[in-house]
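Lecture 7 notes. Example A: sequence first, then its structure tokens.
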Amino acid sequence: MTILTEKPDVIEPDSDESAAVLLTSHQTLLTAPGGPFELKPELRQLCALTSDGILYVSAQHQTDAYVMAFEDQLEHENHHFEVKVCSMSTIKALYRANDDANGKALSATETKRQAQVVQLLGEAHRRNASDVHFVVGHDITRIFFRIHGLLWEAEQHQSQVGMELCSSLYNSMCDVAKDHYQPQVSQDARVKRAYVDQLGLFGARVATRPLVDGPLMVLRLLYDDKTKMTLSDLGFLTQQIDAFSRIRSLPYGVNLITGPTGSGKSKSLQVNLNLLHEECGGTKHILTMEDPPEYPLLANQSPLGAGETWNDGITNSMRLDPDILMYGEIRDLASAQAAFRGGMTGHLVLTTLHTNNAVAALQRLIDMGVDRHLVTDPALMTSVVNQSLLPVLCSHCRVPAREHLGQLNSALVQHLRDLEAIDETYLKGPGCPHCKGLGITGRTVVAETLLTDLEFMRVFNGQGASAARRHWVKEMGGITKTAHTIIKLKQGLVDPRHAEMTVGPLDFDRQILELAHAE
């Protein structure tokens, strides 16, 4: 290593243009994203290595431990370099000039891939896909659409094409990407508003992760779906709709909508918050905290700020004079405790949590570290809804199960016999023009709604979650998700294979609750 100067003013371009000239004379940056010595974002603020061996180092950070460690790495790899001291603004300008230079070189490819992505997402939107998966393998990239909860292969490309599609989408079509696309690390981003509007979407978020043979990129497409704006449209039963009405009438308390990813929790929140707004005539302040907002609401919607934690956001929201608070998700102990603080301070709180059933949500909160006395206070923990979504069969091409029992495994056939449901059950058909060849026309909710009371909480505290679930069904008239599924199965709405894949075995209540279905 050679230090050319220790004076920070030896190299001090006074503009991005001069930095670009400097970079041109020194070729490219090896420490830029994708380079052989790619640095983490925070270290790229302190130094930059050009391809002709000049290492630009911030004057104030010459003895920084990370900078010195990078210099040691270069020496260890026998990479000759000379140090030039400069300001941090010069280093920033060098990286910007490098980005501009690469952008010009890649503009033709980027433009082509960008147009390809827009066309692809347009097709996904036309087919009502909720997600688009880019799976880049060693030789082939496979692209899937998730339509009505099921994955369908849409396209195949050479691996390099898939990599370029992912890179173009992340680098040039996203506005909150933290860095350039890096296939070897997990990244999150959001598609720019211009593209979202062009596609007719409410939003689109991006998540990536490296796999064994290449990267995976998944886009969640967010729609402003005005076709399902009532709880009945979503598929809830009359008893469950009455439970939601009771929840909306409460003056305060914590109310959870739970279920797995993609189970329609945010849509149910949207419908209920819009009903709240209508029922109170706009006289109550409804404030949300979301990451990101997934549906337009009749409320003051607030996205989580950059670098802001859920705990910070929730704590701040309670200072903004709300009556009703909606938090997009309880993710950890801090956000759970903050949500309970909202309930304890006189607010009606609605939020989501990932659990398998309604009663399990209470144990999940306790396991997360929320005080058991808070979780089991029925005046504070006022309700839990758990839901899943099942594909709805096309009524034009569905086929009677009785005529196709050979397609079902023996255990499922026996479950249908025990339920005396074979003659009422249908299977997914071959597809037709009415369902665009899918055999599926949409999705419907199967759910359970738990309104807590003192006796339920006593059973939960004294005998555990399983006893509390039995009490809810036997003594409180609770309808389990399995029972709701069987109702829709006997209506010919859902395929029993989809039902068992999503909700579980049709005899699950008999096993867990020790109840006969006849009851």
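Example B, a different protein, same format:
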Amino acid sequence: MLEQTIDQQKDYILKSHNRCRSYQVEPERVYSRKIITQEELFEKLEVNRELILTASPFMNQLYSFVKGSGFFVILTDDEGCILSVMGDEEILSEAFAFKMVPGAYMDERNIGTNAMGTALEEKTPLQVSGEEHYINVYHRWTCSASPIRSKDGEIIGILDITGYSEEVHSHTLGMVAAASNAIEKMLETQSYAKALADVKLYHEAIIDSIMAGIVTSDLEGNIITVSRGAAEMFGYYPEEIKNLKIWEVLNDWEMVKSQVEEKGSLIERDVNVKSRKNKLQFNLSAYPINDEGGRISNLILVFKEVKKARKLADKLMGRHAIYTFDKIIGRDENFLRVIEFAKKVADSRSNVLIMGESGTGKELFAQSIHNHSEREREPFVAINCGAIPRNLIESELFGYEEGAFTGAKASGHPGKFEIADGGTIFLDEIGEMPLDLQTRLLRVIEEGTVSRIGAVKEIVVNVRVIAATNKDLNVEVSRGRFRKDLFYRLNVLPVRLPSLRERRSDIPLLIEYFMGRISKKLNKKRVAISEEQMKDLEKYSWPGNVRELENYVELSVNTESLPEIAWISGGSRNENAQEVNLGQVRLSAEEDGCLKLEQIEREHIVKVLNLNKGNVSLTAKKLGIGRNTLYRKLENYGIDCSETRR
């Protein structure tokens, strides 16, 4: 089998080299033949926005597994154009010296044999190492790449991880393939969710139309019926409007008609209406009425106030806060003082800066502050400044105008500040925001206006800003990575959340809460914890804070036993934690060498295997996971079932 795999590998490398010679790629080449301009790249990023935003967390997770080992992770589009890159500084510097940057094409025609370009050609996950690369400068690297496909099976991108040749490992390709598969599943889920949201939008529009203005007209613009609500909205008597042509009321009539004819409907478009006294803006949805031959005969036009339309969108897209202060668990005196302070400042118009380590509940507090304020019925919009690629964060925050660039949506795209108008915007990981965007953010805070990309006009917004960070912004300011004036504008009402090791007395309370909630959710038994074990848990430093504690309890419930905790008492000073569980892909990992939760999981699997004399089916049943899942874990952890039989 191994010899067959090697032969197959030699086969696709040989075919790739032959193609490169036919493309006349020079082995001495250093840069890709095709590197697009920043303007062209911006258009690429917008076209691939959904792919980039979906892939970004998985790229972060993939990089976290190899961080510090001289690797970097790359995402390309379906043509091999680099969209996003992240990795270790040393190897990234080398890559950038070879212009492996966003906008560079990594297909075989432009840069020869490499995992990204060859995976595009072969349409399968593959690995290219050392001299298998066609150009000489890549001989010191190894790269593993896997296609990302749409739900229709079409390749829409490539995920790649590249490092030095001496670090080559067959498992690296498996990691990349698993990550690309996870991205595909997430994209498919999002597609189904969008379809459901569209259906719900239609139903909501019908229900809400009772409170809306409804007008029907034929394709020649003759107004047939007018609801009383529409007449009142426009400032006319119903009979007066019937004597008008629709374009005498609706400025964008031709656009509305063509949209319905071409696409079957028009949903939630802001339009201008000429009322008796002045020009008003409403939100319009339009639907066709077909005759017996299936041809459009009339149109139904549903007008709503813009604010109501935004609330409908907020409802559909989940732009609301769900947490309140009464859902925050804790009895520690200092922690309760923080809660009381947060309640007092909730109704203030001043900005809030929430500081605390990862996993302390910063967004939970942000939502609670919003729900305790007079803005509770208005939108709550959250954006993670560290999770969105810097090329996209500007359009995410501020939006773009119609025609701002090729491929832009015809209606433009509102930014998060517009969507949050009247409510609260939560800027998580504010310390990761690029300096140039910090300047724009400062202007929005100071002037209360926002301008879309490609627009001239300023839009007035009434938004309360809550920012959060796990960094010391004073240090970031001193190092020139964060604007001092922005820091002072955000730090008006500072809320510092204590780490879990600063409120150890709350650990039993939190464990009890998580144990009850998780066991009920998973329909499993609660796990008993002795007094001695609880003391050990209280001694542990919990670098991942409440999030890590919750993961630990969930792991316990899943495995129906408390993982070994003797290792905990030594503690850990590492503040960086990530999340993981049985049956899920969340790893709670500590980078300073302490035993990790995945190691606990490995030991527990071995223990259960021993009890079941190496029987995989019985072990999977006992662990509460599927056999295929267990087989994957056995492979990942290098567990040999034959060695566990007793």
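Note on Example B: The first strand starts at residue 71 and ends at 77. The longest helix spans residues 170-208.
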